[in-house]
Amino acid sequence: MSTSPIRVTVWGENVHEQRDASVKEIYPDGMHGAIAAGIAKNLGENVVVRTATLQEPEHGLTEEVLAETDVLTWWGHAAHGEVADEVVDRVQEAVLGGMGLIVLHSGHFSKIFRKLMGTTCSLDWRSENDREMVWTVAPDHPIAVGVPNPILIPAQEMYGEYFDIPQPDELVFISSFSGGEVFRSGCAYRRGRGRLFYFSPGDQEYPVYHHPDIQRVLSNAVGWAAPKGAERITPHVSRRPTGWYESGQTLPTADPRLAQS
Amino acid sequence: MSTSPIRVTVWGENVHEQRDASVKEIYPDGMHGAIAAGIAKNLGENVVVRTATLQEPEHGLTEEVLAETDVLTWWGHAAHGEVADEVVDRVQEAVLGGMGLIVLHSGHFSKIFRKLMGTTCSLDWRSENDREMVWTVAPDHPIAVGVPNPILIPAQEMYGEYFDIPQPDELVFISSFSGGEVFRSGCAYRRGRGRLFYFSPGDQEYPVYHHPDIQRVLSNAVGWAAPKGAERITPHVSRRPTGWYESGQTLPTADPRLAQS
Amino acid sequence: MSTSPIRVTVWGENVHEQRDASVKEIYPDGMHGAIAAGIAKNLGENVVVRTATLQEPEHGLTEEVLAETDVLTWWGHAAHGEVADEVVDRVQEAVLGGMGLIVLHSGHFSKIFRKLMGTTCSLDWRSENDREMVWTVAPDHPIAVGVPNPILIPAQEMYGEYFDIPQPDELVFISSFSGGEVFRSGCAYRRGRGRLFYFSPGDQEYPVYHHPDIQRVLSNAVGWAAPKGAERITPHVSRRPTGWYESGQTLPTADPRLAQS
Amino acid sequence: MSTSPIRVTVWGENVHEQRDASVKEIYPDGMHGAIAAGIAKNLGENVVVRTATLQEPEHGLTEEVLAETDVLTWWGHAAHGEVADEVVDRVQEAVLGGMGLIVLHSGHFSKIFRKLMGTTCSLDWRSENDREMVWTVAPDHPIAVGVPNPILIPAQEMYGEYFDIPQPDELVFISSFSGGEVFRSGCAYRRGRGRLFYFSPGDQEYPVYHHPDIQRVLSNAVGWAAPKGAERITPHVSRRPTGWYESGQTLPTADPRLAQS
């Protein structure tokens, strides 16, 4: 019921697009460009989209940018190790304080995803033009609204189980591949005050981010992950004195954090 | 992002209010009246609220009424057994097809709640003016937005664990009572295409539904439980022929249910 | 760490085996006979297995039999409607009190499973000799110990999503089919004091219950579902007086149920 | 059904016991000594218990020790920052490979717990001799077997919500405090192939680890967290070739990891 547009930052590693002709051909504006365009097209005036890339100072993710970001999307693959730890810490703090985060495909091995999951995030894989079907297993979920069941992707890299992640708070999509594998391809988590969605379709060698149904999922995910509360407050420790509540029903106001804890 | 108002039906058993002077004094317009007023006050033009009671034909929950209801709230206590089974089945079908349902306090023993949970829904209790504190354990949850942590209720019936319910999909609130007991007081579930929220504060002998923070929770729950998709479709069996997807990416349209499954 | 054997009752509808030559050929001792034999073979002296069928008085599930059953397995298909409601209620009460229940394949539409789930339990299907692969997505789970990932079933009926069940407490297996479908084929639930496992592989027209890996899963599931506590106690309502704990650390013993609640 | 004893390593920070007379008086053998004694007393020949402390080389948690540990318990408070990162990484890898981990009380802020959770793990607190009641909300859970509901702790440090953790896979206990606060005090998680249990009762200033019911919970948790499979295998990436399954039902054996994935 909020009326101001959701502020989205689409982060792209932007390495394959610069060095691999095959990727440049599929994504002439960069993968981040394609992702941003799909969200902007679907959400129109309900959203303000910008992009940021690895090569920018602080990877384009300064304190100021994060403070103005409601939802961050993350695609990386070839250069996970080049992402500065302090930027990762900053993103984690923003997520726990309420910023939405959408991690895409090979981002399963990004520092930020592994840090928020606490597991190896490893999986099986094969890049051999498998047909992928993305099945909805939570038809009431806002991220699944308006897409066919299944979404059909003619050719895609295979990602298969076992995918080493915590059991999702909400499992939204399961994919099958023509080689017989399955994968939990749409996984929703709540962490701190923030929301996190992992979505596996999308790869530098396949034009998946131009697929209208995939664009619809990403746009839905932006709406779902946007903060529901007004302020960004990272959870923190507070000492609560005995009988704090006894002065009537008024909560102590000396420590504003207490009322928010 | 939908613009039409949420259609809410507040169902009240309306027995205590008719026979018990103590209740009539607290709730002169009925408990359903107080619940409806709180939602209408908070959500304004974003909502259209009506009430229905046990005493009406089909308890006021005809096929037509349910078809026009986005979210149903349910309060009952003294007359669970008088609710017709066919009405209960009708409500269950509506929920599984996408209607939101909010079950309140002693509604834990209603036919509809027990049917949707599959468990006894039993609990410990004591009506001795305990102080209840309602603590938020999911601060990102839309139902918890805008309420203090904890909500303080000066006097309330005690509901305590063990509460025999399936583990909630999202545990939003936990209450403590001055006698030392705890209770999972705000429990969110997804069932079929519908959403279900159980909220325990509220009793015929205490003015809890006049409490602004409780009204806020109920109003938030209405927003959360409202259907996200356009149509109400109860899940059903479909036979899917081999190779249904091979005619390009078009899904079969002969059976419209298949595309929706 | 208990040393007495687990008492297993394998319930079979026993209709197809009596009337369909094709089924009788695959399962000359009945499907229940094959299921029981696999469990007995794998668990040896750690288990005592008996069978019961629809045609027996009270379907072989008297109060006495259930009182002596630690884990009940359930296969039905053609005659769900012939199972008496009072037997279903009895089984539900036993499960909520602590008895383990393993529901197999077409048992998804049994009265007992639908009653415990609260949803339609509908799904997509096709019986056309699909190859099924059963993938483990919870490798730490006791039910998945000792089976390959995936289990390969050369020919099977297809069961596909959307499967209308509550999100499992633990999702153990996901199946793929050669036609491209996926299915949450191993779903673990806790309900009341009991444990429930749904496992979809197994059909009257395919020799799946002779498959060693499937037998291993069923045997593992028996161990997992066996009660962990000593007594069977269905959850129930108790009134807890104010200050019950104040007589030192001793719990009130007047109501034995209170100490157990 | 394994017959070899569970190998438990009880890790203690061992700082308060050395420097604070009040703690030394309550725990003359160290807190780790008391924890180890309680487990050994309850589990007898089903367990082999050793201790390790911060002050030992590699904090007593060498590769060899971890390789011989089925379940590790962790208590720390004053010196979280002194735990070497490489030991933390080693413990994390062991957990994801199958080792059980039990994190106690102020261990909520240990490096290993925060790393496995991915959140701040912050909470509210007060050390003012609150009475704590530990309520069971999962009566079927093996960790809750044999303890009263609630466990009464006459005096304890208060830990209150909001506790910033991922929603537990299984919420076993909820505590209340005489000051009115609540806390999710018994939280079970599965991570990788390992199991993790957080249990909050226990503090250096209160004799909680001498409490028989608390010792029972810790002993139960050891049984629950012990690995179910035979080998410790950290999840990892594998490339799965197309048609790997087509050579009959035999899985490829060239890469032993594949069969284990």
From TrEMBL, chains A, B, C, D:
Q: Which Gene3D superfamilies match?
A: 3.40.50.880
Indicate what this protein is called per its UniProt record. Trehalose utilization protein
- What SUPFAM superfamilies does UniProt report for this protein, alphabetically? Class I glutamine amidotransferase-like (SSF52317)
- InterPro entries the UniProt entry points to: Class_I_gatase-like (IPR029062), ThuA-like (IPR029010), Trehalose_catabolism_ThuA_prok (IPR009381)
* Ranges where the record places region Disordered: 235-261
Q: Name the species this protein comes from.
A: Actinopolymorpha pittospori
Q: Which residues form the ThuA-like domain?
A: 7-225
